[in-house]
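Example record used in the benchmark description.
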Amino acid sequence: MQRTAGKELALAPLQDWGEESEDGAVYSVSLRRQRSQRLSPGEGPRDSQSPSPHADAFLHYRTSKVRVLRAAHLERLVGELVSGDREQDPSFVPAFLATHRAFVPTARVLGLLLPPPPPPLPPWVEIKKAEGQDQSFNKNLRAVVSVLGSWLRDHPQDFWDPPAHSDLGSVRTFLSWAAPLGTEALEAEKLQGNFLEEAQQGQEEEEQPQARAGPPASAQTRSPDSQEGCLEEEEGLVREGPDLLDFSVDEVAQQLTLMDAELFSRVRSCECLGSVWSQRDRPGAAGTAPTVRATVTQFNTVTGCVLGSVLGEPGLAAPQRAQRLEKWIRIAQRCRELRNFSSLRAILSALQSNPIYRLKSSWGAVSREPLSTFRKLSQIFSDENNHLSSREILSQEEATEGPQEEDTPPGNLPSKLPPGPVPYLGTFLTDLVMLDTALPDMLEGDLINFEKRRKEWEILARIQQLQRRCRGYCLSPRPPILAALRAQRQLSEEQSYRISRVIEPPAPSCPSSPRVRRRISLTKRLSAKLSRERGSSPSGSPGDPSSPTSSLSPGSPPSSPRTRDPPPGSPPASPGPQGHSTKGTLGCNYTCENMCVPRNLHT
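Model output (structure tokens):
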């Protein structure tokens, strides 16, 4: 097909064609259109050195067939690592190395991948003849060495198998005769040394006194049933040293960003797979996904700091508690400016939790500007359309490229856009768990569904890209702030709700009984019907929370039907079917994305 310049056809570069089966493997076939230059009539090879003005007068398209492995037996997949066409399927090797632990152990892959050493040549065999016969063998050997180099560099933890590290030993033995002077052999030796050093450090830590590993006394959570726990809930906790909120907004936000960026950079992609992360709560899986668990712990720690600082002193007046709410909102806004979406979501989760959100008097004392900021930040993590808003914002932040200053002093960010962003990892974990649940591991004929692994790799590749960008933060640790963060009082779910009820007692309600519950159920159904009818009308009443004209103001706390108090006889550990819990539910939110933002915050 030919077309003059300036009138190029808008052709799709890739078009699905179908599938092909071959020797226990299924390939997805597509047609790729590529543009190639064609000489104008009258030009010959002699004119190739001196371009003619008519050289790009004609465009020529050629169609090539592209095959991508979709499903196969394990032996065929491992063989594709060596004999596959990297140009047609460049993502196969990184996708296999990143996801293989979901369907086969590392030792099995190495057993199929590593060839045995060649036997020694007899003295009467000519060297040149042997080289000609072993040309294909040497080609495959170089391919195996290349795969091992990528494996050692990108996924070194796959070879962690203490104390002997037998898988790494097999790789070192192979490289010692296949590529003894190559960079891959040096990488394997370096990794062996790192493993031995880590094992020695772990042994030294175990030998240290256990008392040094315990948390500070002020950070330990006392039993709410004990006398000390009750006194703490009524009188607050007396601590030594500065409080976390005694530091400036910038200092706190920068230290949170520093910790989140470091933890996210250490996350191992294989631990994020749905087949791995979904098994974390099973018996005997306490050590599963330690790097991902570290990010979850940090998320819950930040949330606990917000709860502890806002609820830790029940004797505070509403204006004083409102000042704490305002400062945490400013810290959340600063985290947004630093593109730290992890701590941003943790702070918002705590402010939206039932124990804090139900404090109408405190929210009523918050000024208008912080409330407006709180409302805008909450819209980022709206659960509508599978959290489309937060996904789009993260994509926009990824596409943002800001110039970096080389002479930036430590502890300060560049004057323009900072590096990052630090994402909320729970979004990716949710996608991977849902993907693992929706797609089967095996297809008909006992074929491994590698198309599923490709989709998982697309998410893991994005995580790795974000990890590289998070290493660009120029922030220095501030020990006093980190100490205040560790020493901040952590409240349990039951404690936080009990203290919240002490600060603002719940409104009296009718005794619970089957008849009353049925009456409330009918009332709720009627209210829902009226709300739908009211929502279908052209305009809503100003006092209606569902009305588009309703908004937050300093005199009206952000109340919502989600924050109603349960009857006095209900247990404090269950704030309500739609209320937010604290630390226990945050772990679920981290993987299931069931965070509910109050409805009137989206108006």
